[in-house]
Design brief:
The chain is mostly helical. It has a single domain (6-216), classed as Fumarate Reductase Cytochrome B subunit (Up-down Bundle), CATH 1.20.950. Helices cover 67% and strands 0% of the residues. The chain has helices spanning 6-28, 33-56, 63-66, 70-77, 93-115, 132-143, 145-167, 173-178, 194-216.
Length: 219
């Protein structure tokens, strides 16, 4: 059964590659910082797209399908969830916390990068709109706490995948590639036809245009 629509899958893998490339270019520094900024704009577009897609995307990609209250999370941990809640179809209640944390800290990392100034050669395009004190704090966060928190979240994400694979015998990677997952009859599938894909293309173009506009503020 289709769980992950094509736009969600593309978002996931492009974001994964972009984060790896961002870490590499940051460590190299120098001329590689040109690509670090470009990749930052790409992540900006991806995060904006995912927020929009979380509102109107495929059923299991929407925030409404996986953002749960504390009570539901506790019941899930106790194994007391109901079959009609479909808590294990897309992101389970614990996985949803990881998704939200990643989106939040990615947005924060991009935001601090946009106003940062390393006082050497790299200045974010929105730096001139904030005070020097705020820019200094943002730069410190971006280069220190922010990157380590993101790396910790990514590591936790990978460890969770390995735990499910070897501990529970569930392959979470395969559905994110094919989009399909074996599920009980009656589980509602995600829409993944031409219409939602066209909508995703429009949202991606709008998100990319926003990121490009932000990048042009540096000139």
């Amino acid at each position: 059964m289709r769980v992950w629509d094509l736009p969600t899958r593309l978002f996931h893998w492009v974001l994964a590659l972009a984060v790896v490339a961002l870490v590499v270019t940051a460590k190299i520094g120098g001329a590689a910082m040109v690509w670090h900024f470009r990749l930052g704009y790409l992540v900006l577009a991806l995060v904006v797209f995912r927020i929009l897609w979380g509102l109107v995307g495929g059923r299991w990609s929407r925030f409404a399908s996986f953002v749960r209250g504390p009570g539901t999370v506790l019941r899930y941990l106790r194994g007391d969830s109901r079959a009609d809640e479909h808590l294990d179809v897309g992101h389970n209640p614990l996985g949803s916390l990881s998704v939200l944390a990643l989106l939040f800290f990615l947005a924060l990392q991009v935001g601090t990068g946009l106003v940062a100034d390393d006082e050497i050669a790299n200045v974010g395009p929105l730096n001139r709109f904030v005070s020097s004190a705020l820019a200094s704090q943002a730069t410190h966060w971006h280069k220190d706490y922010g990157q380590w928190i993101l790396l910790a979240l990514v590591a936790l994400h990978v460890l969770a995948i390995l735990f499910y694979l070897f501990g529970k015998g569930k392959n979470l990677v395969r559905p994110m590639i094919s989009g399909d997952k074996p599920l009980p009859p009656g589980t509602p599938p995600a829409a993944d036809g031409a219409a939602p894909r066209l909508l995703a293309l429009v949202l991606a173009a709008a998100s990319g245009s926003l990121a490009f506009w932000v990048s042009r503020l540096a000139t």
